[in-house]
Design a protein that fits this description.
The structure is a homotetramer. By secondary structure, the first copy, chain A, is α/β, with parallel strands linked by helices. Chain A has a single domain, classed as Aldolase class I (TIM Barrel), CATH 3.20.20. Chain A is built from 9 helices and 8 strands. Chain A has an 8-stranded parallel β-sheet with strand order 7-6-5-4-3-2-1-8. In chain A, α1 packs parallel to α9, α5 runs parallel beside α6 and α7 packs parallel to α9. The mean pLDDT of chain A is 95. Chains A, B, C, D: Its EC number is 5.3.1.1. Chains A, B, C, D: One of its GO terms (molecular function) is triose-phosphate isomerase activity. Chains A, B, C, D: Pfam families: TIM.
């Protein structure tokens, strides 16, 4: 099935399990406005599984994204994340192999296969360059390069790391988009990482813990846009 | 928080990952009608995580039930099943430790704790008598006794197994309700198992694979009612 | 099969994966001398799987103990820990469900079953009182009560925690021996915990990181003996 | 550290958890004789963890191989497979990611790293061509291509599958040796698979379940030698 087109730069608001329900919805609606304002960008918003439908129903421009997806087909699979259920609820992208839920290699492969069957964009997480290169052989749509040790620290990857992962992945498969998001916590971080030639970036606690999360979200998206489009 | 009251006999329609979206919704609405017709019974319907909100919004009498729940609190937990998200979407019960997703003992304990915090009924699965006894120490609301080897075979537990598990569990904690559901595939099976003194029962493929699933669902609920209320 | 008799107080030297080969062997031989000196006590020494045979061949009085064991029978099971291989190499006891390797409840049950088949003493780890009570239903030989948050901190469980776990477990099954080992780092800690009515205790980094590990091991065993036998 | 040199063709006798103790030792000694007879070949023999030392001590020519290894360093790691312990016991190769113990991608990476640190040959298992290609990016020494569905069936991979996996892996990294072993159950199977340009092959139940396991082992090794060296 066809997947949604991913436009550059893309921005991923990933509130993980920090938010759900009304609080999440309000930020998703704000992200949706920004996605309408910047049609040249793709804005992704992740949601807990049981929030996906609510977010999808109330938004039109963002790409609603699942935090995980199992490589199963309809049938038994009690307690696992059914791809058809996610798609039907409105998810059009999914994370896989996040550092908080590392997967077996054969699970990554079967989940990518099911995502491709249904037209779901795959965002694979790598916490080292060698992992990024192995994942690149699986032809995901996006690889997120995030050294585990930087998650949640507020420290971003430096230019050398970004360049090294970019070139390592593009050497394997130049069609894969590259997301760099380690430690992004300010609009300046967003601006800098896009200037370093990431195709996209994103943020979790830099937004959810901000004094004004909505404003931070808006400013980060704007920073990504500016970095990509202005010299 | 207060949990919903569980009335006896209860019936659990557990379509696992066989159904999602519209097809699941139609059967859930039928179950809801039956729950209205038999207010002396509790009718549970499970749904994939991303279908919970849709099912909850369209029903009023059934207990919408999650297939699993992680024992996490709002925060990181990327890819895990957030209790608050489930509750907010309308889930008021959850399975734990199903044979298709066996859990670590410390995970079972933390999930029960979070379910109790939020007012979510816990349905713990045991595939042997000794496992049922250990789980009974954790004070769940319901224990489902289902010898793994019988799942999906169409063979039901016999009277001796039912009696043994009932007495083993009640010896540990007589407040726990006991569900017997191994191999239930016809209304007669439902009738017999309730007559054997199960507090409740349920079915998956006996309904989803029936020529007329809606009729099978209705007949099974009726059989449970009859077995419990008539001599 | 018959298991070795467990004498009280028992002491468990558990070097985890800190030691292997020659360094481990030297301490195991010292423990063996102490076990000969105090025949009224049981001295357990754990070893990495591939060190079990070497330790067993060079000792005669200690109970050589595995760090884990899978509940499998001879056959496929590639990469899993075969009970028959452990027994044949000389292991006569095994840990299960340690905080560094928590197990699924059904795995704990099958491992205990296999240990009982072969005559291997089972040491189950619980990191909370409710977990200890659930584990007690499985009739292990020893339960180790070790609140996860104290491991490696040098803080020991206080008298109230010890008393509570002791009485919780004995209420379920008074035949189970109780090991309390959280934060044990000096001979005084050993003395005190045995005086608090633990059946046994043990130590990891308090010995392996001591200036003189051999002396520390000897002093701890002596302290356990003194606490149990003298007023 | 330097690894042992792998000579072609190689033969892997992998009795998994079917054998341990004396029965395993006898076959390992026979394999050792064959390894002496055919110095141009490498003969690997796997053993359960607790049997590795015994096998190593009694053999001189085979490469004693572990069924698995965790990517840990000496320290806590209770219940995990310590690389230093394996090496010290005599293991000079290890399987990783076998279909009976599939690993997380980050675990595979850390285990390979530790194996390279110590000079342990890595044998990575792939059950599909795409998995083989991803694993090839990790620079293991050997990749075993074994479509999961053929394991234990007695059906071997056909020439087209062998050719496809060989070329897929060599395109990524031509230094990796390729083992094809799916369904090998007779000396003829061994002969044919080596003629199809596998660098090595191996067998489990074809040997352990043979009327005369020792004879079967000898004949298979001979068949590998003949296929590689004669036209």
């Amino acid at each position: 099935m066809n997947k949604l087109n991913i436009k550059r730069p893309f921005f991923m608001f990933n509130p993980k399990s920090y938010l759900y329900g009304k609080e999440l919805l309000e930020l998703a609606i704000e992200a949706d406005k920004q996605a309408e304002k910047y049609p040249e960008m793709s804005i992704f918003v992740t949601a807990p599984f049981a929030d996906i439908e609510m977010i999808s129903k109330s938004t039109h421009n963002i790409i609603v994204t699942s935090q995980h997806m199992d490589g199963i087909i309809p049938g038994r699979g009690m307690g696992h994340i059914l791809p058809e259920s996610l798609y039907n609820a409105g998810a059009r992208a999914t994370f896989l192999n996040h550092a908080e839920q590392p997967l077996k290699l054969n699970e990554i492969i079967s989940s990518i296969q099911r995502a491709n069957d249904l037209g779901i964009i795959t965002v694979l997480c790598a916490d080292s360059i060698v992992e990024a290169k192995a994942l690149a052989m699986l032809k995901p749509d996006i690889i997120l390069c995030e050294p585990t040790e930087l998650i949640g620290t507020g420290k971003t990857s430096n230019a050398s790391y970004v360049e090294k992962t970019n070139s390592a992945i593009r050497e394997v498969d130049k069609n894969i988009l590259i997301m760099q998001a380690a430690g992004i916590s300010t609009p300046e971080d967003v601006y800098n990482i896009i200037k370093m030639k990431a195709d996209g970036t994103g943020c979790t606690s830099g937004i959810t813990n901000a004094v004004n999360p909505k404003e931070m979200l808006v400013n980060m998206i704007e920073a990504a846009y500016e970095a990509f489009n202005n010299d």
